[in-house]
Amino acid sequence: MYMDKTYREYKPAQLLLLPPDLRDWLPEGHLVYVLSDIVGQLDLSAIFAAYEQGDGRGYPPYHPQMMVTLLLYAYCDGKPSSRKIELATWEEVPYRVLTADQHPDHATIAEFRRRHLNALAGLFLQVLWLCKQAGLVKLGHVALDGTKVKANASKRKAMSYGRMCTREEELAQEVAELLKAAEATDEEEDRKYGRGKHGDEPPPEWQRKETRLKKIREAKAALEAEAKAKAAAEAEDVKKQLAERAKKEAERGRKFGGRPPQIPDVEKAKPEPKAQRNFTDPDSRIMKDGASGSFEQCYNAQAVVDSEAQIILAAEITQETNDKQQLVPMLQQAVQNVGAPVVHASADAGYFSEEAVEDERLKGLELYVPPDRKRHGARDAATPSGQADGRSTRPLSAVAERMRARLQSVAGRAVYKMRKAIVEPVFGQIKECRGFRRFSFRGGEKVSAEWKLIALTHNLLKLCQAKMA
Length: 469
Fold this sequence. Notes:
Elements: H1 31-41, H2 45-49, H3 64-76, H4 82-91, H5 93-98, H6 106-115, H7 117-121, H8 123-133, E1 141-150, E2 158-160, H9 161-193, H10 204-252, E3 276-278, E4 285-288, E5 295-306, E6 312-318, H11 327-338, E7 344-347, H12 354-357, E8 366-368, H13 398-408, H14 410-416, H15 419-433, H16 444-468
Parallel strand pairs: 1-7, 7-8
Antiparallel strand pairs: 1-5, 2-3, 4-5, 5-6
Helix pairs in contact: 1-3, 1-16, 3-16, 4-6, 8-16, 9-10
């Protein structure tokens, strides 16, 4: 299929002296064989195309199809580390059979993954369609949830905006003092040894402090830019609210009581003193891990899961610590990915907002999203006041009341009680069974691609299990 480029010979069926065939090393129907067959059906042209740009000189590269299969199997096996993958090609039979007894080193594996990360993430849709063709996707009920996954950065490398301001002043003063001392030393040594002789280099301590000062100023400027962008977006929202308010006042012939919303001053907008930025991975955020209760440097990984076989229909990461803004884009993405409408969609109370559940883009989709959280251990029965079921007693809007009524119906209870059983086991399989708890890459774009790679290998395992069954 791809014959224009010269590659190293790759013959999984190559006969050996003992045993006579590599494929005799594993039982028939092993995951390696099923996965290899599936990868053989995928369109890898985006990856192969990258090899057609060279001049043909040098040692032939490893076969791209073998490298793709190796990486996907390693992620399925819970081995995202390139060094562990290299070692496995020597020590573990499935990896040896998969690579036809070839052993790419960890640098080659890491470079292949880095170079083709977006193309590998792009295989998510192809695998999803294979799952759909195999009858593993029904779209009767999909569930949305998020989980915190650690970033490839330490939370100790983060600093708040307030601390940045203080530390910037301290470092600026220290750098100035060190520079002054260095200049005095230079003058003394110039007098002693002559200009241009030894001793005129700035001290290492000055260089280190100047580097830290530069990083702090860059992070501080980034936080200030984010604050102004947020204020600009809020200003636009307020202008729309004021226009709507003026229109309603004109219709009723008198003004509303109370103070109208104020348009924020974009130029005066500043970050909150506790707003943080990480120097290692600036796109990551400090988030609370719901399982451990600890605060970690994380990304919020989102997934929409189909109820039939727990196939992931959409996967994305966000920097937001809560899920309130993710309902519409994630469900939209799921519908677009499968190219068919969804009947029921459920999510926990963290996703509820009136704007989201009433959004025109979700029209025709029956949503089950609680308007308020229920206390742990509270019984399901609800009263109009909300006291009996452990919910808040504050009055709800008409939109929230309609949603609560839907959830309290017999059909609503039957749908919503399945939410946890659909989506939460998927995160358990990814984190506990496959051991994926930290991203390998840094930066939002690369982390998003790696999360799609995790999602597609989850789907691959489901597809392989269905074919082996």
